Amino acid sequence: MDKNRKIQKRRLRRRNHVRNKLRGSADQPRLCIHRSLKHFGAQLIDDLSGTTLASASSRDSGVSVKSGGNCDGAAAVGKLIAEKASAAGITSVKMDRGHNKYHGRVKAFAEAARESGLKF
C-alpha cells in the first residue's frame, strides 16, 4: 500500500474515533479545529441544525500575529474564537481536535481559549 494512502487511512480512523463521541448543540456547540502547515482555524458548529455559529482563522484581519502556522498564531485564534463565542452567548463547547494530537499548536489554541473564558 502506498505510504500516503496509509497515512490518510490512519488520520480518517482517528478523526472518526474522536468525532463519534462528539455532537454539538446550540447550548454546547462543537469547536472544530483545522490545522495546516501555514494557518490555523476554528469553527463553532451546531450539529443539530447544521450551522456554523462562529469562526476564526489566522487569515482573519483580527489576528495580529504575522505567521499563523506557529503556537503564537494558534493562541491568537483561540482568543479570537473565545471573544466571538462570548459575543454569541456561548460559554461551554465540546472540542473536536480531528486527527490532530493534543500537542503543540492545538494545545496552545486550547489553553488560550480557556484563558479567554471558554469551558471545554
Automatic annotation (TrEMBL):
Keyword annotations from UniProtKB, A to Z: Ribonucleoprotein, Ribosomal protein, RNA-binding, rRNA-binding
Subunit comment: Part of the 50S ribosomal subunit; part of the 5S rRNA/L5/L18/L25 subcomplex. Contacts the 5S and 23S rRNAs.
Chain segments carrying region Disordered: 1-26
Underlying gene: rplR
One term under GO cellular component: cytosolic large ribosomal subunit
Residue ranges with Basic residues bias: 1-22
Function: This is one of the proteins that bind and probably mediate the attachment of the 5S RNA into the large ribosomal subunit, where it forms part of the central protuberance.
Family per similarity comment: Belongs to the universal ribosomal protein uL18 family.
Pfam families for the chain: Ribosomal_L18p (PF00861)
Molecular function as annotated in GO: 5S rRNA binding; structural constituent of ribosome
The protein's name: Large ribosomal subunit protein uL18
A biological-process GO annotation: translation
Species annotation: Rubripirellula reticaptiva
InterPro entries per the UniProt record, alphabetical: Ribosomal_L18, Ribosomal_uL18_bac-type, Ribosomal_uL18_bac/plant/anim
Lineage: Bacteria, Pseudomonadati, Planctomycetota, Planctomycetia, Pirellulales
Source organism, top-level taxon: Bacteria
